[in-house]
Amino acid sequence: MSIKITFIGAGNMASSLAGGMIAKGMDPINITLCDINEQQLAQVRKQLQVNTTRDNINGCQKADVVVLAVKPQVMEQVLAPLQGLFQQRKPLVLSIAAGITLAKLQQWLGQDMPIVRCMPNTPALVETGATGLFANTNVTATQREQARTVMAAVGLALWVENEDQIDAVTAVSGSGPAYFFLVMEAMVAAGTALGLSEQVAKQLTLQTALGSAQMAITSDVEPAELRRRVTSPGGTTERAIGIMEDNKLREIFAEALQGAYQRSKELSG
């Protein structure tokens, strides 16, 4: 990408996105990170050799793409001084702030601004993230590809059909890592209770999670079929799966994701 990209906010997600793009061939000279924390800027300068500044207006002067990577509660305050410049230059704006709707962003920046809402998750920090994207009608086809390329630098990036589905993305993949971490916790504890050392139980659990995900990603069959293939009739796996089914594991997940979805909608409101 020969475009110039500016990140407002230089935290973990912004630096991971910048690092991912550099790893895929983007010249660090075309990347700028803005932050009020000079220590944070010094760290990313050393790590990535990118441009840094504490002045958001200066950092956005030549940007073709601006990534909003600040906390939702300060977004309006951060954007207010930038409205004039953004109206003049019309950069593509990517927001990775949870709960900030396109309507709010357009209210703060102008109705004619090209804006994409992005919902990444924390595995993006190790370049295995999953991101949902939704663009407003001002975003061109070229800008859609730019947005997808930025987020794909740290993992999977998929477009959703409407903005409401961003809340569903939040429930499935945005909050999703915590669900798997909880399962890992439970398996380690159960393995330890069965007599394994905590270290062995942890290593076996984490490697099993990694291997299972890799099998599901690379396989040409659905996860349900992979589960059936592991579940021999009358065997140990069938006994374990039966107990989970009897305790309504599927219903628990359905209720949990519905709760996350509703909470996401409440926060967006």
TrEMBL record:
Q: What is this protein called?
A: Pyrroline-5-carboxylate reductase
Enzyme Commission code(s) on record? 1.5.1.2
List the pathway annotation: Amino-acid biosynthesis; L-proline biosynthesis; L-proline from L-glutamate 5-semialdehyde: step 1/1
Question: Do the record's keywords include Transferase?
Answer: no
Domain Pyrroline-5-carboxylate reductase catalytic N-terminal per the UniProt entry, residue ranges: 4-99
Keywords attached to this Swiss-Prot or TrEMBL record, sorted alphabetically, are: Amino-acid biosynthesis, Cytoplasm, NADP, Oxidoreductase, Proline biosynthesis
Q: Which PROSITE patterns match?
A: P5CR
Would the keyword Disulfide bond turn up in this protein's UniProt record? no
Q: Where is the Pyrroline-5-carboxylate reductase dimerisation domain?
A: 163-267
InterPro entries, alphabetically?
Answer: 6-PGluconate_DH-like_C_sf, NAD(P)-bd_dom_sf, P5C_Rdtase_cat_N, P5CR-like_CS, P5CR_dimer, Pyrroline-COOH_reductase
Q: What does this protein do?
A: Catalyzes the reduction of 1-pyrroline-5-carboxylate (PCA) to L-proline.
Give the main EC class: oxidoreductase
- Cross-referenced Gene3D superfamilies, in alphabetical order? NAD(P)-binding Rossmann-like Domain, ProC C-terminal domain-like
Q: Which residues cross the membrane?
A: none
